Amino acid sequence: MPPDTLTRLRNRLETARSDAPDPTAQELELCLAELEVLWEELESRSDQVARERVRYTAFFEHAPFACALTDGSGVVREANRALCELLAVPATYLAGKPFAIFFADADRATFRSALARAAVDPQFGRSSWRSRLRRGDAHETDVEVTAANLPYLKGSVTALLLFLRPVD
To answer: Which of 23, 95, 131, 153 is the most exposed place for a label (fewest CB within 10 A)?
Structure first.
């Protein structure tokens, strides 16, 4: 409840109290004081969450390794700068794209298999394999892919955190 709402409630309570002081008004005043304390705690936690989100975003965006977060269908939800550089595509291009399109044709089945296993097996944990990626500039590059299951993301059957490292 925003502070202006709390102020309005307090004013209404003062008006009601002056008209007819009774135990109910005192009880309401205590409830209002409790609401004010809860509001302050909520604001404090909200600020903390905002700071943590900024820190996570900075860590993810500036990580020196290529990584992406996909949903249970393999659609890219987040991708960092290193992945955009590895794939030679702008960041705006990646979001919402099925990640399988970046694998060479022969390697797409491996990715889809890992995705399917992660969706049905909560013990999937982590899987690594070598693969060939098709970059946005039509070149291909060999990478080691590590996929980690993130089953705890609410509202999602599963999610995969992908780490990609170029290999020679």
So the answer is: 23
